[in-house]
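Quick one:
INPUT:
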């Protein structure tokens, strides 16, 4: 057994053709980003563009590290495997960002916030790669063979992305947080994107989840490719009779790397896992306050006021005076008749309207502060201020009531910009 396998594992992975190709694409992307609008200032947009490639590289690097450890019969703890995987997972990303950052600070479009650029890249692509490397290590140790682990990793990404997309589409929150894909803070034309507390909180959760998964994986022996294989009577057909060595060769083929033994101390890992699990449970209690998991019922409870009209369910600030509530109701019903008469449609469902007292409140709960928003998929509109008459109520209502003849199931127009 190689007593110092870490460097050898990293060297072997970085020599693989797939890895060199992936790294070359990332570095080329960083070098060319200075010539692409929005990416040339090395801000949130650049970090978001590199998040998915970083996630893929991190996951496959984690799987490759476990494979190399198996081939060397090296009994390494999952935390150590994760640390090894971090080297091939992060190096190309750091190189790509260095090139992009050089463009941003010395190019024609100067970056005025270099610290934010570093923060976005660290908390988006680099953190995505690290989290995915942990997932790759855990999946690879739990499966017999790296192709199966790779398939499970891809399915995990697809499932995570689908769940996040459906949550954002369902509303009313227009922002989303995903451990694999990073942080989308809301409509980008609303205001400049900043390094807000939710992104730091997301990465705290990512670190705790990764540690918990790796410690839990360390409680069990690695599942090698031939662990638990049984020899059937017909498996020895054609072998020389009475050859016990032939049966042994069949049971443990030379090209089958042996499974790893459990590495580490079970009591120590169990105690550490318990501590991390308790910390994670406490941290998860702040999901709503830090805009990670905001549900419709949370927004309704925060507003506090609700009135049901002939065509609407309107949620508004509970502190709104009764005469203003009446004006709000009348304005909604009048605009409903105006829009439906003009379009010649009769909506098949009631319209939900969320009227926030100010931009700050709407920004907190939906991710869109100064932007008025309609969600045709849900038949909902999200407005700022109980103004009478409301200046954009009719416009947003047109999006919501026209969903019935839009592209289903999303209820949007096939024409760009409508």
């Amino acid at each position: 057994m190689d007593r110092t396998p870490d460097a050898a594992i990293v060297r072997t992975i970085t020599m693989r053709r797939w890895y060199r190709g992936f790294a070359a694409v990332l570095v080329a992307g960083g070098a060319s980003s200075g010539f692409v609008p929005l990416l040339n200032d090395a801000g949130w947009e650049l970090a978001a563009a590199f998040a998915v490639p970083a996630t893929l590289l991190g996951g496959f690097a984690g799987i490759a590290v476990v494979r190399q450890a198996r081939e060397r019969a090296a009994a390494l703890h999952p935390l150590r495997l994760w640390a090894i995987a971090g080297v091939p997972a992060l190096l190309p990303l750091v190189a790509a960002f260095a090139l992009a950052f050089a463009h941003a600070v010395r190019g024609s479009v100067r970056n005025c916030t270099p610290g934010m650029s570093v923060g976005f890249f660290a908390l988006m692509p680099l953190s995505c790669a690290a989290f995915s490397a942990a997932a790759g290590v855990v999946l690879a140790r739990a499966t017999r063979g790296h192709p199966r682990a790779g398939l499970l990793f891809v399915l995990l990404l697809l499932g995570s992305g689908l769940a996040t997309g459906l949550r954002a589409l369902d509303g009313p929150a227009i922002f989303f947080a995903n451990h694999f894909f990073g942080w989308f803070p809301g409509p980008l034309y609303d205001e400049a994107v900043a390094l807000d507390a939710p992104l730091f909180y997301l990465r705290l959760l990512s670190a705790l989840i990764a540690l918990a998964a790796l410690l839990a994986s360390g409680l069990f022996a690695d599942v090698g490719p031939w662990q638990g294989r049984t020899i059937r009577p017909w498996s020895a057909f054609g072998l020389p009779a009475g050859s016990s060595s032939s049966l042994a060769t069949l049971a443990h083929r030379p090209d089958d790397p042996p499974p790893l033994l459990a590495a580490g101390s079970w009591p120590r890992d169990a105690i550490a896992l318990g501590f991390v699990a308790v910390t994670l449970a406490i941290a998860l209690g702040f999901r709503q306050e830090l805009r990670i998991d905001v549900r419709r019922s949370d927004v309704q409870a925060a507003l506090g006021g609700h009135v049901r009209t002939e065509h609407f369910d309107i949620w508004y600030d509970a502190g709104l005076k009764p005469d203003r509530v009446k004006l709000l109701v009348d304005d909604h019903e009048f605009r409903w008749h105006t829009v439906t008469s003009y379009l010649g449609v009769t909506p098949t469902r009631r319209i939900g309207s969320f009227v926030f007292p100010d931009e700050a409140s709407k920004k907190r709960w939906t991710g869109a502060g100064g932007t008025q928003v309609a969600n045709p998929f849900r038949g909902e509109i999200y407005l700022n201020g109980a103004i009478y008459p409301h200046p954009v109520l009719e416009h947003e209502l047109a999006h919501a009531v026209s969903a019935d003849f839009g592209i289903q199931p999303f209820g949007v127009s096939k024409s760009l910009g409508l």
